[in-house]
Design a protein that fits this description.
By secondary structure, this protein is of the alpha+beta class. It has helices spanning 3-24, 50-59, 63-89, 93-108, 112-127, 138-156; strands spanning 28-36, 39-48, 132-136. Strand 1 (28-36) and strand 2 form a beta hairpin.
């Protein structure tokens, strides 16, 4: 096994270690307040992780949106990691290459990075609005770390003894 593939395995393990707290820890806290008699009064505060957001959406009847977040931000990243390890254990180079190309196509649908951008835009919008505030919590940073490390691991992967092409 090449040095690049060993490094890719290590980075994949690190990415999974970042993904789990990225899904479970609070991602963002949003606070709404109102100015009343010269004092700011907090009227709303919500802190949620990705998993809690999926659960809340499901419980409030937004099953489609909950399913999309669950599929693209939870299920596909784990399937991608499993497929990554399968690619490295396959002996047949042609089959390994086909699975690699399939996973590469699947990775485009993961949308974990798009989800991060969406959360960041929501954060910026909340910060720019009077009487609304947002704070990015640890889950956001873990999830961003997952996105970066996972993409790097996949870029390092060699499927046929030479550098994998895009």
């Amino acid at each position: 096994m090449s040095t690049r593939n060993r490094l890719a395995i290590a980075l994949t393990i690190v990415s999974l270690a970042l993904l789990v707290p990225g899904l479970r820890q609070p991602m963002m806290t949003i606070t709404a307040s109102i100015s009343l008699l010269g004092q700011n009064r907090e009227i709303f505060r919500q802190t949620q992780s990705i998993i809690e957001a999926v659960r809340s959406l499901w419980n409030s009847g937004n099953a489609f949106v909950a399913g999309l977040i669950l599929l693209f931000s939870v299920t596909i990243p784990f399937l991608k990691a499993i497929a990554f390890f399968v690619i490295l254990t396959m002996k047949d180079v042609a089959r390994r290459r086909r699975l690699y190309l399939t996973v590469r196509s699947l990775s485009k649908w993961s949308m974990a990075d798009v989800f991060v951008v969406g959360v960041f835009i929501a954060y910026l919008a909340a910060v720019a609005t009077d009487n609304l505030n947002a704070v990015l919590d640890t889950g956001f940073y873990y999830f961003v770390g997952y996105c970066l490390v996972s993409n790097l691991a996949f870029q390092l992967l060699e499927v046929d003894g030479s550098e994998a092409t895009r």
